[in-house]
Predict the 3D structure of the following.
Amino acid sequence: MSPGGATGNSLITFQGVTKVYDMGKEQVHALRGIDLHISPNEYISIMGPSGSGKSTLMNIIGCLDTPTGGRYEFEGELVCDVADDKIYKMDDDQLAGIRNSKIGFVFQTFNLLSRTTALRNVELPLIYAGVPRRERLERAYHSLEQVNLADRAEHRPSELSGGQRQRVAIARALVNNPAIILADEPTGNLDSTTGQEIMALLDNLHHQGNTIILVTHEPVIAAHAHRTIQILDGMIASDVLTTNGQAGQL
Amino acid sequence: MIEVLRIAGAALWAHKFRALLTTLGIAIGIFTVGVVMAIIEGLNTSFSEQISSLGSDVMYIDKRNWFQGRAGWLLHRQRRNIGMDATDYILERAQYISHASPRIYQRGNLKYEDQSLERVAILGVHADMGVITGVDVVAGRYISPIDTKHRKAVAVIGHAVRENLFEFKDPVGRKMTINGRKFLVIGLLDKQGQMLGRNLDNMVYIPAETLLKMFGRRWRNITIAVKASEPGLLAEARDEVEGIMRRYRKLRPGEENDFAINQQSSLQELYDNATGMLWMVAMGIGSIALIVGGVGVMNIMLVTVTERTMEIGIRKSLGARRRTILWQFLVESMAVSAVGVVVGFGLASATALFIQKSTPLAARIPPTWGLLGIGVVVVVGLIFGLWPAIKAARMDPIEALRYE
């Protein structure tokens, strides 16, 4: 029984989700049956050593990848349901639609378009959502204001510091008012001071009511979350509620 | 859509030089086709202007076909000559022919006071020729039936003859000599210009009988110009004249014609064949250049797609659909080929302008170029950009994001 399940009102539901990579001769089991419930406004960290399957899990949550088995619902909508006798998977464009409107990605390497200004980078998800130009620019600008970078709107990524780039990426993740923010090692490429600034920003976003999923291998970073999920060998090793950095076994 | 164009523009701008080199093939193709089109267009204009002086409802009956090759010409030369009597023979019998006149060609030397002109075309004609050629007499009168009947030494002169021989004097009523014999100038013709390199204004018309008497009638072949009574009845007139000429030549049924009926349209056909060949050669070279250029576009688009794998991954993770990515790269490949088309057309226009300024040829840029250009952009861009664009659209977002 996972903590999120108790609240009933589920944002993300995993039932026996598996992922097998077919590498020709041998099969690699990246996920071996994950059950998971995530509720709105949770602040979760997913931890695990490399090769544990946490990246695969995050890719599936983020609709960048689909499982090879099990059931995945996002806000009650069926993303994927694969069992012996049935296969339902959203197609590429449906998945793109979910990524566009429901998920805000924050990557370790920022993943900004280098030739494009901060404002244009933040505007991108709105372009794919078909938002009219005027509204797009307003919302992108507002999003940059939320991360205190309005004065850098016309700067290119190469003219910004690492912390500023990550803040642009967070502004981009926020701009579509997503249901969850998926942050994959958001401080991995930053020094600890800048990392703390970014974490403070994420904490603040959680206070404002956002749902945040952090993928990290640093306990200090993971401690910002209120629930920590440990992945080991493709399975959930532990799933605990934490408050103010104090772990409490469920 | 505007966004897609903006993205494509920015991507091209980032690699200006590369885009320009890539599109060289397309530019050369467009340039070749463009210049040839401009030249043909220029030829068309001057050609139809020039041959219109032949008259569309006029036929020239001659023992040889004007538009035969060399072999045919030699063969036709051995045919019997057509005599002077053929003119009246036709006029008496034909229903669909309103005018007929012999046309005898001779070169002669003109002299007036201390001015002289050598080897000028002298044409022996009847009064009907004035109607057949349709040229206005701007001063004096044309040759009359009485002039021909009495073999009068009268002449109607072309504009160039007047300028060179009489300068600014009114030539009508003055006497000049043709090969030493005195002729009274009775009329001056309006300016006609050139036809196929021949100056129609540098000619003198005299009564046919006067010419024969003066230069001799032996061995002389005569061309007969006939005009259809109505332009719409040209085909009937042609059939009729053919029948009459066969009777005149006493040909048995089944025997081949030993004369030819030459028309403006047969000249037009000859011309169309010649320019058609030119056109096909240009299209051939142009198509090969376009294919080479297109392969260049495809190559550069494949490089671009690989180079920008990370960007594709980012766009996909942010929710770009397959179709969006596909269009982004298709528009970009069309933009690359558009650069080639613009460069090619620019060079071709400059060349056409240069030809126009430095030669008498009216090389012209037809308005259809615009359409052709758009067609090329779309076709080359789509065909050669499709595979790279599909490749980009099908990329797996995770793989793409991991790409270094």
Residues 2-49+269-402 of chain B form one domain. Chain B touches chain A through 20 residues (CB under 8 Å).
